[in-house]
Amino acid sequence: MKLQHYLGGLEGLGPVSTETRVFVETWETRIFGIHTAMMALSSQLPLPRTSSTFTTVWTWADLRKGAESLNPFDYFKFRYYEKWLGGISGYFIYNGYITAKELDALTEEYYNDPSKSVPAAGDAAIDDRVVQYLVEGDSPKRDTNVSFDFAVGDFVSIKNVPSIEHTRLPGFLRNKNGTVETVYDGAYVYLCDTGTDGIGAAMPVYCIRFEPEDLWPGNAEKNFSLYADLYAHYLEAPAAASAKQAA
Amino acid sequence: MIDRFQYREDREAYSAARVKALEALLIKKGIITDKTVDTVLDFFETKMGPFNGAKIVARAWVDPSFKDRLVADTPAAIAELNLPEGMAGAEGEHMRAVANSPNVHNLIICTLCSCYPWPVLGLPPYWYKDPTFRSRAAREPRAVLNEFGLPVPEAIEIKVWDSSAQIRWFVVPERPVGTEGMTEAELEALVTPEAMMGVAIAKAA
To answer: Is Ubl conjugation tagged as a keyword (chain A) (predicted)?
Structure first.
């Protein structure tokens, strides 16, 4: 397990931040823009090719995998966009787009002269594609026939799948039971195949209602309920879950 | 002693230089242009943002049947409005609205990352991304809301929505009392991103 998969319900954390700004430092806006452009130029999207030399895949899943693969102590050490900066720089270096040496050298130059500007260059079609991505998005819904094992009101058990790099199953829901609130129409993929964790191919997605008293017995507030949208692979019938326990 | 929890003294200046170096290299290598990052940021100032969510909420306040349709089929209801192109775009491909009522208060969270409906809310604020909020809101939403200055009586059910798949959620807060004579445009001005995430309520100015 990774602590960052098990955030929900941790105790002893102190007061929440109520900072309503999106960016607390100007530099954070730049890494956000770079990340969004990478998603827009990512090669799996059915968008017009441009002259951009970006030829690989970059989705939210890549950013999340990077953050979730961090040493948990580093995950909590770095601020949100610091993790982005580290992960995205690492991706460009790992994939051979830039070298660590040239990034370090240029960082030094901008550090010594923050007023020095970035080079002027580029093909407008690249920016057109970025805007087209923002307008059209990247829907995970697929026109595939799938079978629905559960209906609204069904009681379901949540599996504890072996998640290594990345998961969409929050840790605090594992091995718990809930009730189907909504069966979403159609089938959904995820942005990448999560391997042993089990999501990738198109499958149903359900909204599951949980009772906090079941999630945190004796240690939950009264009169609230928690809902989570979960991929079908994470669910099983309670009978299957108890048969596994008995075995 | 390891230095795991030490930061560079020039933490922000260093990150600023590093991200500028990265952007410069990406321009030089033909990955992005010198206008790409500003194009993205401009899109969030003019097309995607909480100004869209505010329009949707204000319409729901003046037209209860629209509010019903919004909760029943969020994309179809949004499509009725004259909103900028891009309202079904990135991070808004599958949105669902949940409405507060005298008996129910809704709160949106993402315990795994920072999933957020860009087209209607723009970009997530720092509090939403903070690991402490993400942890605590799942187990003790009432205590967390108190810290945001929003006491929710125990008689009101709190529904917490954890965005763990592809649905991006937003809250339709209740119309504040004392706004009966206001126009739709005046009502829009009362809707904050915080109210549409459930850590605040809308207030008559």
So the answer is: no
Domain with A89, as residue range(s), is 26-138
Q: Residue ranges per domain, chain B?
A: 8-46, 48-197
Same domain, A124 and A164: no
Phi, psi for residue A226 in degrees, rounded to 5: -120, 135
Residue with tokens 């998969």: A5
Our count of domains for chain A comes to 2
Quote the pTM value.
0.95
Which A-chain residues 167-226 have CB contacts (< 8 A) with chain B? 167-170, 172, 184, 188, 205, 207, 212, 215-216, 219-226
Classify domain B48-197 at the CATH topology level. Nitrile Hydratase; Chain A (3.90.330)
Phi/psi region, residue A175 (left: phi>0; alpha: psi -120 to 50; beta: rest), is left
**Residue numbering of the annotated binding site of B for Fe(3+):** 110, 113-115
DSSP β-bridge partners for residue A158: A235
| A and B: number of Cβ contacts within 8 A | 311
Cβ-contact B165, A57 below 8 angstroms: no
The identity of residue A156, as a single letter, is V
Q: CA–CA separation, A235 vs A247, rounded Å?
A: 19
Whether A190 and A132 share a structural domain: no
A45 and A98, same domain (yes or no): yes
Residues A103 and A176 both lie in one domain: no
**What does the alpha-carbon distance between residue B162 and residue A229 come to, in Å, rounded to a whole number?**
7
- Give the pLDDT of residue B205: 76
Q: CA-CA distance, B183 to B170, in Å (whole number)? A: 23
Look at residue A1 and tell me if it is in a domain: no
Please report the ipTM that was assigned to this predicted complex.
Answer: 0.94
Six-digit token string for B154: 């125990």
Token pair belonging to A153? 């009101």
Q: What is the CATH number of the domain that holds A219?
A: 2.30.30.50
Which chain A residues are closer than 8 Å to B157 by Cβ?
223-225
